[in-house]
Design goal:
Chain lengths: 108, 297
């Protein structure tokens, strides 16, 4: 699924690393679902931590209706300085952790 | 006796990532739970809640195109399949002109836009045939299979089809990555390959037909379920000897309900007369007022 912030996050390297594990199809689906949901929590946490209570509610209401809408990013840019950098940074940290764990898994 | 996992890499990651996910979701709810009172978590698309740690992931709500095969969609599309049954033959053969007229009339009414077997005096060799699964296509110089995915679930769902070794009939969708637009992305995502070379008059008008068919919008329908996709012609094929009459991208096959098993099945396919390019690409669902709602996922 595509979200309003998807264009900021590069997952090609993560997918490439997972692909090298030659997983079975259902295993791919399970791990992929975990990655997507965990990443979504990570990004949402980074965003909500920067918003006032009122802005949080506006943002969440809109997100629940139009998760893809770039208008959400416009909203965030008007409320939080350098929010795109903050999103990229938290995604980068998250991916680095996952890469490390994939490396460990290769040794199993 | 020690039992060893037959999938040690997967089990290692599964346990690690379930635990990570549980921590993330609990911390998230602790921190932001009060703000979520007026919004259901299911409405936050893509957030899963684990009920019991360590068990298989059971998402509370999955986005529609993630991790699950598409079965018959909304009821109205299913009703369409019942209505089409009278006019679509059991045998997968060329339709008569009368059959095409009746079917396109039904489809134009149901979907709310003109659906035609012939457009600008040009028609394909047939409008009812067997569709087979195609691979992804290179979209711009330097493209690769992994870049086609918007998410890990996208990769899990559509990645296994692979990427064709050569380019589509019209080459790259964009001349460079910089020029590659969202529109180009959707064209590759929802492309079909049709037997342009078998269209009546093709040999005598190659240039004209080639330009006509390039990214021509088409409605593709699984008549057994009513599942429908608005697609574009993105490649020429398959060869006659394959026994198939057209091909669908991994995403097209998914939304037609034909992505599993043999990845093949009978479909209807017609031109959409859309000179202003208003009809969105992707899955299309008939809503209550008999007007369709297009989906770009």
């Amino acid at each position: 699924m595509r979200y309003f912030y998807s264009y900021l996050i590069e997952i090609e390297s993560l997918i490439g690393a997972l692909d090298e594990l030659n997983l079975e199809e259902n295993h791919k689906h399970n791990l992929a679902a975990l990655i997507d949901s965990s990443l979504h929590y990570t990004i949402l946490d980074a965003i909500l931590s920067e918003l006032s209570e009122e802005d949080k509610k506006s943002f969440l209401k809109r997100l629940s209706k139009e998760p893809e809408s770039l208008g959400l990013m416009d909203f965030l840019n008007s409320r939080v300085d350098k929010i795109e950098d903050k999103i990229k940074s938290s995604a980068k940290q998250f991916k680095e952790q996952l890469h490390k764990e994939i490396k460990e898994a290769r040794l199993r | 006796m020690q039992f060893l996992s037959s999938h040690p890499k997967y089990e290692y990651l599964r346990k690690k990532w379930i635990s990570k996910h549980k921590n993330l979701s609990e911390k998230f709810l602790d921190k932001h739970g009060s703000s979520l009172k007026h919004v259901t978590l299911g409405g936050l698309s893509g957030l899963m809640l684990l009920t019991t740690p360590g068990v298989s992931v059971i998402p509370s709500q999955l986005p529609r195109d993630v991790g699950q095969s598409i079965t018959a969609t909304e009821d109205k599309n299913r009703l369409l399949s019942v209505e089409l049954k009278k006019d679509v033959p059991e045998e997968v053969r060329t339709l008569t002109v009368e059959e095409e007229a009746r079917i396109t009339n039904i489809l134009s009414t149901k979907f709310g836009f003109p659906v035609k077997a012939e457009l600008e005096g040009i028609r394909l060799n047939r409008s009812y045939g067997l569709i087979g699964g195609e691979q992804h296509l290179y979209r711009f110089p330097g493209d690769n299979l992994f870049r086609h995915s918007d998410s890990a679930s996208d990769w899990a769902m559509y990645g296994p089809a692979g990427i064709a070794p050569g380019l589509g009939a019209w080459g790259y969708f964009a001349l460079s990555e910089n020029e590659f637009s969202e529109k180009d992305k959707l064209k590759e995502r929802y492309y079909i390959a049709v037997q342009t070379f078998l269209a009546p008059g093709f040999a005598e008008n190659v240039g004209k037909y080639r330009d006509f068919f390039k990214y021509r919008k088409m409605l593709v329908i699984n008549p057994k379920t009513g599942q429908a996709v608005v697609s574009v012609i993105g490649d020429a094929g398959p060869a006659e000897w394959t026994g198939k009459h057209l091909g669908g991208s991994p995403e097209v096959m998914h939304y037609l309900g034909l992505a599993k098993g043999v990845r093949k099945g009978p479909v209807l396919y017609f031109f959409i007369d859309d000179p202003e390019d208003k009809i969105l690409l992707g899955q299309i669902i008939i809503k209550d007022n008999n007007l369709a709602e297009g989906g770009v996922i």
